[in-house]
């Protein structure tokens, strides 16, 4: 197992790389060292050993974890929560109201993920351990959670990527944990800040996404903590770039659907737009960032197809 020390982000926050898909820098778990030890996101079950190892590296006892906050219940972000919870006798799991019953009974979640990931499901996500209902706490829009004498986290309902999505504002670092609502940060390209929206199936809603990002923009922000991956200290630039790509994603899908090119056509059109854009920054077609971009836009294309299918009834 490739080893990576937890990343110190300052302001009592570390990021443990979860190596989703076996790839570094895909997903991670944020550790907030407050009186009540708090984790944001778990990644899939395959990341749980990484989390245990990372906490050890930070000289923290997993048994002291008090809260596990899930930005949303997609399995690459929350699939490992039940497995991790077995190690954390004191912990409660915080989730959007729409996520609660699926974490308690993951059968529909598993079914949905099998539809997207097919035969890769077992390798990527198994096992999905149910979370006992009494361990689940829901946070509505404007909800709050005191995790230390000087830190009360606040919650925002942030649909767009998924309807079961929350954003979490940390007043101490003036940062927001955006999960996937504010897109993906491609840190693999040095010197170029590059962000794309994440339009996964099956609750992508472009208007809601823009509104959620706009709401987060109104917070007093110095940082954004992405689900994929890491922190940006340029909230404004990151948000604006993601929003600016949304119409391109929609038009790529519309053009492909018009010509009956299917999901494959949507993907190719997205690819073309992104490759062309990055060429402008001298990023060649064989740059390693495309390994992750191509994985992401495959799923984005499925979400776009699903969105237009529903739009057109
Ligand atoms: Zn994700």
Architecture overview:
37% of the residues lie in helices and 19% in strands. The chain contains 10 helices and 15 strands. A 7-stranded mixed β-sheet has the order 1-2-3-4-5-6-7. A 6-stranded mixed β-sheet has the order 8-9-10-11-14-15, with no helix packed on it. It has a two-stranded antiparallel sheet with strand order 12-13. Strand 9 (151-157) and strand 10 form a beta hairpin. Helix 8 packs across helix 10 (289-311) and helix 9 crosses helix 10 (289-311). The protein is globular. The protein starts with 6 loop residues before the first strand and ends with a helix. The mean pLDDT is 96. Residues 74, 76-77, 180, 227-228 line the site of zinc ion (ZN). The site of zinc ion (ZN) has 6 residues, from helix 2.
Notable features of this structure?
313 residues; 7-stranded mixed sheet; 10 helices; single chain; 6-stranded mixed sheet; binds zinc ion; 37% helix; Metallo-beta-lactamase, Chain A; alpha/beta
Q: How would the blueprint of this fold be written?
A:
Layout: E1 7-8, E2 13-17, E3 28-32, E4 37-40, H1 48-57, E5 65-69, H2 75-78, H3 81-85, E6 92-95, H4 100-104, H5 107-117, H6 121-125, E7 136-138, E8 144-148, E9 151-157, E10 166-170, E11 175-179, E12 184-185, E13 195-196, H7 206-217, E14 223-226, E15 230-232, H8 235-258, H9 262-279, H10 289-311
Parallel strand pairs: 4-5, 5-6, 6-7, 11-14
Antiparallel strand pairs: 1-2, 2-3, 3-4, 8-9, 9-10, 10-11, 12-13, 14-15
Bound molecules: zinc ion (ZN).
């Amino acid at each position: 197992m490739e080893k990576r020390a937890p990343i110190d982000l300052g302001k009592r926050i570390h990021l443990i790389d979860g190596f989703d898909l076996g790839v570094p820098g895909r997903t991670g778990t944020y550790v907030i060292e407050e009186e009540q030890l708090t984790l944001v996101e778990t990644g899939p079950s395959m990341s749980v050993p990484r989390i245990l190892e990372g906490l050890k590296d930070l000289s923290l006892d997993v048994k002291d974890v008090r809260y596990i906050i899930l930005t949303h219940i997609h399995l690459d972000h929350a699939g490992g929560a039940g497995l991790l919870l077995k190690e954390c006798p004191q912990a409660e799991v915080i989730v959007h109201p729409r996520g609660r019953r699926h974490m308690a009974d993951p059968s529909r979640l598993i079914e949905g993920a099998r539809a997207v990931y097919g035969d890769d499901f077992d390798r990527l996500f198994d096992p999905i351990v149910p979370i006992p209902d009494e361990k689940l706490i829901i946070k509505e829009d404007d909800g709050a959670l005191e995790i230390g004498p000087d830190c009360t986290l606040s919650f925002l309902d942030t649909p767009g990527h998924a309807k079961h999505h929350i954003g979490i504002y940390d007043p101490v670092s003036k940062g927001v944990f955006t999960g996937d609502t504010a897109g993906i940060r491609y840190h693999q390209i040095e010197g170029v800040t590059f962000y794309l929206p994440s339009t996964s199936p099956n609750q992508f809603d472009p208007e809601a996404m823009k509104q959620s990002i706009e709401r987060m923009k109104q917070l007093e922000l110095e940082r954004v903590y992405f689900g994929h991956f890491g922190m940006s200290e340029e909230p404004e630039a990151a948000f604006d770039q993601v929003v600016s790509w949304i119409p391109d994603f929609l038009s790529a899908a519309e053009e492909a659907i018009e010509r009956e090119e299917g999901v494959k056509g949507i993907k190719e059109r997205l690819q073309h737009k992104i490759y062309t854009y990055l060429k402008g920054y001298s990023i060649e077609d064989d740059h390693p960032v495309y390994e992750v971009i191509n994985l992401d836009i495959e799923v984005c294309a499925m979400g776009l197809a699903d969105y237009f299918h529903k739009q057109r009834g």
